[in-house]
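Budget justification aside, the reviewers requested a transparent look at the raw inputs and outputs of the sequence design task funded under Objective 1. We therefore reproduce one unedited record. The lines immediately below are the structure tokens for a 393-residue chain.
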């Protein structure tokens, strides 16, 4: 059997991690891996998470299974944080998942189960796992233009022209905030244009909300998702707690399906069914910590305060890098870095320039020049800016 297997292509980011790890230079800088880091290079455990873990250790009496959909209190708390009052909860079905990736996979499985002929539209570019999973499942896929390589902003005319060809019943995957890999986000007016167009086309929005709280704030980052939830009869939302709660290894996510109230039972049943087929009961440790934090006013306040510290730190790093690049290059070529949001920005460097940064300067970034802003600190910002100025001419 195994002799029929074919070698699979290696994940480029995992390859980059290995190259960085094996690089003996003490001055090396890792801007590739997509996790938040503080000024010391550590991905810290948030204060509220530590407090909740201690409390859970003291009070937990069993490790038995939760339900197929996960703990109801977790689903309710996280759905409430994401949706607010945008939609009546009698229209909302949900399941806990192993991280945001698990939620995306389950959503695609649901689409395939419901309408196998549907085309899933993804932005160009997008997070590489999106097309990878879609192809693996053998689903129809199409791309819509998103990023303007010249301005490093949104190619909104191209985006709208491509989405104008969407057919009724097609699914359009949208980044709720902090677009990965570009960092460029739709503004409120552009979101309204997309919503109006997709509604007229009879498309189904599928929102990937991996970075709520990392862009403009916990509430502002949910605004587009809430507007979509309120505007469409059917919506899918995949959300992750990896970033905003800092619990990457706990694999804590949720898939939310919004539909007619009289169809909620069937929708929930199908979500439960897919959980059963893929992993039976979802992991609970991270989900329980999130629930405890969101349900405890003191823990929630401390978590929100620390999350805001994280967000403001990334904004400060963005502005500092943009300023240093302006000085180093004597141009405004990289001013866009300050206007992007979230952990990532795509710098517009060539692959050869990226390779030169790695080989000659020990600066590691993804081949398309996506950098993780959170991988920087006050010491490395000017080093990066000087190196970019040198290789970019």
């Amino acid at each position: 059997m195994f002799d029929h297997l074919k070698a699979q292509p290696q994940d480029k980011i995992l390859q980059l991690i290995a190259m960085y790890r094996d690089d003996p230079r003490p001055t090396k800088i890792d801007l590739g891996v997509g996790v938040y880091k503080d000024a010391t290079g550590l991905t810290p455990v948030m204060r509220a998470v530590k407090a909740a873990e201690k409390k859970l250790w003291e009070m937990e009496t069993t490790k038995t299974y939760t339900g197929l959909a996960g703990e109801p209190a977790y689903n309710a708390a996280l759905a409430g944080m994401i949706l607010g009052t945008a939609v009546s909860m009698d229209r909302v079905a949900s399941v806990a998942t192993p991280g945001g990736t698990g939620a995306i996979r389950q959503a695609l499985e649901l689409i395939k189960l419901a309408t196998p002929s549907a085309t899933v539209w993804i932005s160009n570019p997008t997070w590489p796992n999106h097309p990878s999973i879609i192809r693996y499942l053998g689903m129809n896929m199409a791309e819509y233009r998103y990023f303007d390589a010249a301005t490093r902003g949104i190619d909104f005319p191209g985006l709208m022209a491509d989405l104008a060809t969407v057919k009724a019943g097609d699914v359009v995957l949208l980044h709720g905030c902090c677009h990965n890999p570009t960092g460029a986000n739709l503004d409120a007016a552009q979101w309204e244009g997309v919503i109006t167009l997709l509604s007229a086309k009879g498309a189904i929005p599928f929102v990937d909300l991996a970075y709520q709280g990392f862009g403009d704030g916990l509430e502002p980052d949910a605004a587009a998702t809430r507007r979509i939830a309120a505007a469409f009869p059917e919506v899918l939302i995949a959300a992750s707690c990896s970033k905003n709660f800092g619990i990457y290894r706990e694999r804590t996510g949720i898939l939310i399906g919004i539909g007619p109230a009289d169809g909620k039972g069937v929708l929930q049943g199908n979500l439960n069914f897919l959980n059963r087929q893929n992993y039976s009961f979802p992991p609970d440790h991270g989900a329980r910590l999130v629930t405890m934090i969101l349900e405890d006013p003191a823990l929630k306040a401390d978590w929100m305060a620390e999350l805001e510290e994280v967000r403001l730190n990334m904004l400060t790093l963005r502005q500092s890098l943009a300023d240093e690049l302006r000085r180093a290059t004597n141009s405004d070529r990289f001013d866009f870095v300050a206007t992007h949001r979230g952990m990532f920005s795509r710098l517009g460097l060539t692959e050869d320039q990226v390779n030169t940064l790695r080989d000659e300067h020990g600066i590691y970034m993804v081949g398309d020049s996506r950098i993780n802003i959170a991988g920087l600190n006050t010491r490395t910002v000017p080093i990066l800016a000087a190196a970019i100025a040198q290789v970019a001419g």
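The chain has a mean pLDDT of 96. The two ends are 53 Å apart (CA to CA). Computational costs for records of this kind are itemized in the attached budget.
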